[in-house]
Amino acid sequence: MKEELDAIGQHQAFEDFVELPEGRKALPSHWVYKIKHDGAGNVQRYKARLVCGGNHQIECIDYQATCALTAHLGHVRLALAIAAKYDLEIHQMDVCTAFLGVDLEEEIYMHPPQGYFRLLQTGSRYNDPRLKTSRKMVLCLRKSLYGLKQSSHVWYGTVKDFVISIGFVASRVDGGLFMLHDTDQDIVAAVVLYFDDLLIIANEDLIGQIRDQMKKTFRMHDLGSVSFYLGMNISAVGSITRSTSISTATFGRSCRSSEWTSPGQLPRQWQ
Predict the structure, then answer these.
(1) Residue 109: exposed, middle, or buried by beta-carbon count in 10 A (0-12, 13-18, 19+)?
(2) pTM of the model
(3) What pLDDT was estimated at residue 121?
(4) FRET pair for 190, CA 20 to 30 Å: which of 52, 88, 153, 175?
(5) Residue 35 sits in which domain range?
(6) For residues 256 and 34, is the Cβ–Cβ distance under 8 A?
């Protein structure tokens, strides 16, 4: 939870407390938790996420558009098949706190979550500025937060604009698939986007260039050669004639384990 608030602070996701304007409502916020597993079902990490109560948003006031495109699973498999056919590397990247890196166009206010001041290590609860005035003091959001209805939309627009700016072209049939062509219009690289999980498919040198460009713009985890993606175990064999095998035996378990839990369902490590 402290790590999440540190990331929010680094991105300057919201301003200090401001007075709630007349006629506006502040959205609630709360913590949700997730246990992330690897392809074998082993626990990788415990994650906490500060989530804004987007179910209280009002259309045309708190948000406009909500559509966000992601790669279709069939096209992910097709991209993996192309990588195997042309002996290309498949590199996996994970964007850290993706939604916090994009600006909001709307003016949105939010109540702080439970334990906010204690987690900031500001001392006692009496550091809460709301206790010093009768006015309604709330947080004014600058950046997108998880839970907002427009978060996925503004994130997709941001990453799409970036990928296109470095030479890629968005697929006409799949908004989560981007391709890079050479001077002969042959495909030399592809980027597969599924929310904040990316695959870079290219030769090793080109992957390095694309990866470095992405790291200059987004905070990312470099996961190396792909082994587990969207519930699929992926393994590549061979250097000249490459074969790629996909196992979905863990797909059901991955889907079940991806559910976020409420504070009352916390594992012992969180308590």
Answers:
(1) buried
(2) 0.75
(3) 59
(4) 153
(5) 2-270
(6) no
